[in-house]
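Appendix B. One record, verbatim.
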Amino acid sequence: MAKTLIGIVVGVALAYVGYGALLFTFQRDQQYHPSGSIAVPASSAERGVELVTLAVPDGEKIAAWYRAAEPGRPTILYLPGNGGSVADSHDRFEDLIDEGFGLLGVSYRGYPGSTGSPTQDGLFLDAEAGYDFLAENGVFAGDVIVYGWSLGSGVATHLASRRAIGALVLEAPFLSAEAIARMRYPMYPIRLLMKDPFRSDLVLADLTVPLVVVHGTEDRTIPFSHGREIVERYNGPKKLIEIKGGNHTDIWDRDGWEKVRAALVDLGALD
């Protein structure tokens, strides 16, 4: 009996260590899922969208979709989630462009059209390169609205802590990627193991730019409680948009952008 019990304990311990080693080794493969194409479809090209290349100080070349704003309109610096391609958001982009907004949709390093491999610090640099591109093309800081979705919320929050912007929009955001990983793997010391924690919670208190958070109440990927707590912790002008019944991917289809635009107007960040 004792030998059997010891064998069970040893087996469980080996399984725990082995699975933990796999998680640690392949964590970035689980965190980032690039796929698809960077090509601009005809419907977007007809609206003036072009494919541009952002030069990042560390030598990477980052692809992005760009379209200049109409006179008097701001530019959306769009930072997507962890899956697919920035081209997957082309329907969103066309809605924005139809309203006269400028657009810069960034395809992170390692994603379609871009060199390198995705890492937290690398994505931060990619976003800053996008911001600098807009500045070089005559877009004033106050006319930049940074929009981050899902993983992009962590990139967007970091960018807002490093650059002057007009407003920050976070769709389905997390307090940190580390917190999401702890939720999924509560048996492991995630804080010690995670390479790319995206600790938005560490910079939120220092931001005062107008903030809009939009989050679905039925989000099973990043719980709605994260969006709510971000707003509760925030010290600047802010608005929480609760999309009842919304999940992680259908906010735009539930009039999310219309609600975000109205909130930006209420906060004085948009005419």
